[in-house]
Write a structure and sequence with these properties.
With 553 residues, this protein is an alpha+beta fold. It is 28% helix and 20% strand.
Length: 553
C-alpha cells in the first residue's frame, strides 16, 4: 500500500512538472458536466488557461479553478451563473488579473475571463458597444428631478471587460475622455468599478464609481439587470465598490469630458510633513473653482529611501541630474515628501497656462529650489505607469510578488501615521513607491458598497512594494509582509481608524469589522442578489451555500 501511494505521488509530481493540471475531481464534477453547446464562447479546461487564472498580479496566492469561460455573449455569463446555482460551484470574474490577494480566484469553480483576447472575439456581435451618448448630470448623484445646474454631458457605453487604456483610445477619437482615472490603465472597467477606482483626479471628480450613469449586471442568480440611480438602484449601489459580491458588470455607462491635448506635470519637494499636507489639503479644497484656478490632478509620495526618488515611478526626474535626500536642507529624519500636480491644457488655453500655474504655486510652501516640471501629451501622462511596466518587464522585475498595502487614513490622524510609519516602522528602505494624497469625502457616494473613514477629508496611503530575490533582507517577501502587519498593528493600537482599500481579509469576522455598521446592508444585498453565495469566493467574505469547504481550505 505504501509503495502504491509513493508511486502515485511521484506520478503526480511528474505530471505537474511537464505542465498537466492535476486535481482531485473527475468527469463527474459539475463543472466538467457543463454542456458546452449553451455557450457562444468557449469553456476551457486547458492547462494554460487554468494556470493563468490560478494566479494574479500579487503572486501571493494560488488557487486553481476547474474551468475558464471565455464568454461569447452576455448570455454566456448568465447561463454559467444559472448552472452554478443549480449544480453548486463558485464563479469569479477576472479582468486583467491585477488583483493582489486572490480576489478573483474560484477554487474548483469557473473563472470568467472578461478581458482575454478570446472573450473579445464577440465584440463584433455586441453591435452597439462601444457607443456614445448624452445624459443629464443629475443622474450621477441621484437627485429626484432636473435642477437649474443640471446639464447634459457625454458618456460612453463599454463592455465590462474593456481595459481603460482602450476606452481612452476609443473616446479620444471623438475628442472626449473619462473624467476619473486610476494610475494604471491596463485594468478592466468592471474590475475598478468593483473596488472604487482612484487617482489624483478623485478630489475633483470623485472615484470612478462616482462617474457611472448606468450598468448592465448579471446577478449571482444569473439574471441580467439594467440598473442606475433611478432604476434598480439597490443593485446599482451595491455593485459599485461591491467587490464582485452581487453580480458581474457586463456594461458600464461612463461619464466623459472634453479631452485636453497636453499636460503640465509638476513635482515639488517638502521636508516638513505638516506643511506638505496643508498644501495638499488646500489644493483639493479648490475643487469647485474654475479650471484656471485649480490643478486637475493632486497626488504625492513619500521618499524615505535615497535610491527611490530616482526609481521607476520617479523617472520624471532626469537621470543626468539625480536628486539626493542629503542635498535637501532640513529633511526631517531623512524623509522627504513630494507633491505631484498637473494642469491640463490645449491650444485655446496655452497662452495662459504659465500664468495660471505661477499663481497657484505662489500659494504653496514647498522648498523653492525643488521645482521640477515637464510637458507632455495627455495620453502619455495617463499611460505613464505602463511605460515603467515595460522597463521592469525587460529587467524581469514585474512578475514578482507584490505585498501591497493600501490604507484610507482619516485626516485627523495622518500626522500620527507619519510619525509611526514613515519615520518609524519603514526605516530607510521601502522596496517600492509610497503614495499619499487626500480626497474629499463628499465626492464619494455613501450609498455604494465602499467604506471610507468618517471624516470630510481622508488620505490614501499606498505602499506599493515589490518583493525581490536580491539577497537583501528588506526586499524579501516575508520581511515586507511582516512590516505590513506591524503597520496595521500600530494603527490598531494607536486608535487610527483606517479602512483598507483593496482589502485582503481572510475571515468573515475581519470583514464585519471592516464594514462596521454597514455590514447589515452588505449582507442584505448578498442575500438578495447572490443567495447561493457563489460569486467572488476568493474575497473570503461568504462561504458558498453548496460547500463550506471548497473555497476556504
Amino acid at each position: 500500500m505504501a509503495t502504491k501511494l509513493l508511486l502515485t505521488f511521484v506520478i503526480c509530481r511528474l505530471l505537474s512538472t511537464v505542465g498537466f493540471t492535476v486535481d482531485n475531481y473527475g468527469a463527474d464534477h459539475p463543472v466538467r458536466r457543463i454542456d458546452q453547446g449553451v455557450f457562444n464562447g468557449e469553456l476551457s479546461f486547458g492547462t494554460s488557461d487554468i494556470e493563468k487564472a490560478s494566479v494574479d498580479f500579487g503572486l501571493l496566492n494560488e488557487a486553481k479553478p476547474l474551468g475558464v469561460l471565455h464568454p461569447g455573449s452576455t448570455n454566456d455569463i448568465a447561463s454559467l451563473l444559472k448552472t452554478a446555482n443549480v449544480d453548486g460551484f463558485s464563479v469569479s470574474a477576472r479582468g486583467h488579473g491585477h488583483s493582489i490577494n486572490g480576489q478573483a480566484h474560484a477554487t474548483n469553480g469557473v473563472v470568467i475571463e472578461m478581458s482575454g483576447s478570446k472573450g473579445f472575439q464577440f465584440r463584433s456581435n455586441l453591435g452597439s458597444l462601444p457607443a456614445l451618448g448624452y445624459e443629464n448630470t443629475f443622474l450621477l448623484d441621484g437627485r429626484n428631478s432636473k435642477s437649474n445646474d443640471s446639464k447634459r454631458i457625454p458618456y460612453v457605453d463599454v463592455w465590462g471587460g474593456e481595459l481603460w487604456i482602450d476606452v481612452l483610445k476609443w473616446t479620444l477619437g471623438f475628442g472626449l475622455a473619462p473624467r476619473s482615472w486610476t494610475d494604471y490603465l491596463y485594468l478592466s472597467v468592471g474590475g475598478t468599478l468593483s473596488n472604487a477606482g482612484i487617482s489624483g483626479q478623485a478630489f475633483n471628480h470623485g472615484p470612478q464609481i462616482s462617474n457611472v450613469f448606468e450598468l448592465d449586471v448579471v446577478t449571482g442568480k444569473g439574471e441580467l439587470v439594467t440598473c442606475s440611480k433611478k432604476k434598480n438602484s439597490e443593485l446599482f449601489n451595491g455593485v459599485l465598490g461591491g467587490l464582485g459580491q452581487f453580480g458581474i458588470i457586463t456594461r458600464a455607462r461612463i461619464a466623459l469630458e472634453p479631452a485636453p491635448q497636453r499636460v503640465r506635470w509638476i513635482r515639488v519637494l517638502y521636508s516638513n510633513f505638516s506643511i506638505f499636507t496643508k498644501d495638499q489639503e488646500y489644493l483639493i479644497s479648490l475643487h469647485g473653482k474654475p479650471s484656471s484656478e485649480k490643478f486637475d490632478y493632486v497626488e504625492g509620495f513619500v521618499i524615505v529611501d535615497e535610491g527611490l526618488i530616482n526609481n521607476w515611478r520617479s523617472s520624471f526626474f532626469s537621470p543626468k541630474n539625480p536628486i539626493k535626500i542629503s542635498s535637501i536642507n532640513g529633511s526631517d529624519g531623512g524623509v522627504l515628501y513630494c507633491l505631484e500636480i498637473t494642469r491640463n491644457y490645449d491650444d485655446s488655453t496655452a497662452n495662459s497656462i504659465d500664468q495660471d500655474i505661477v499663481a497657484l504655486l505662489e500659494k504653496l510652501d514647498f522648498i523653492p529650489s525643488s521645482v521640477f516640471t515637464t510637458d507632455l501629451p495627455y495620453v502619455d501622462f495617463l499611460d505613464r505607469v505602463h511605460k515603467a511596466e515595460l522597463k521592469l518587464r525587460s529587467k524581469g522585475l514585474w512578475e514578482v510578488p507584490h505585498p501591497w498595502l493600501n490604507l484610507l487614513v482619516p485626516k485627523s490622524r495622518i500626522a500620527d501615521f507619519d510619525k509611526g510609519v514613515f519615520k518609524g516602522i519603514l526605516g530607510n528602505k521601502t522596496s517600492g513607491p509610497i503614495l499619499i494624497y487626500p480626497m474629499n469625502k463628499n465626492k464619494w457616494d455613501d450609498q455604494s458598497s465602499v467604506v471610507t473613514p468618517n471624516e470630510d477629508i481622508f488620505y490614501l496611503v499606498g505602499l506599493l512594494r515589490s518583493a525581490l530575490d536580491s539577497g537583501e533582507e528588506t526586499q524579501k517577501l516575508d520581511y515586507l509582509k511582516d512590516q505590513n502587519r506591524q503597520i496595521l498593528k500600530f494603527c490598531d493600537e494607536s486608535g487610527i481608524r483606517v479602512k483598507r482599500y483593496l482589502p485582503g481579509y481572510k475571515t468573515q469576522e475581519e470583514w464585519k469589522e471592516h464594514f462596521g455598521d454597514r455590514w447589515g446592508q452588505f449582507l442584505k444585498r448578498k442575500n438578495e442578489f447572490d443567495p447561493m453565495r457563489i460569486l467572488a469566493t476568493g474575497q473570503h467574505i461568504f462561504k458558498p451555500s453548496f460547500d463550506s469547504v471548497s473555497s476556504f481550505r
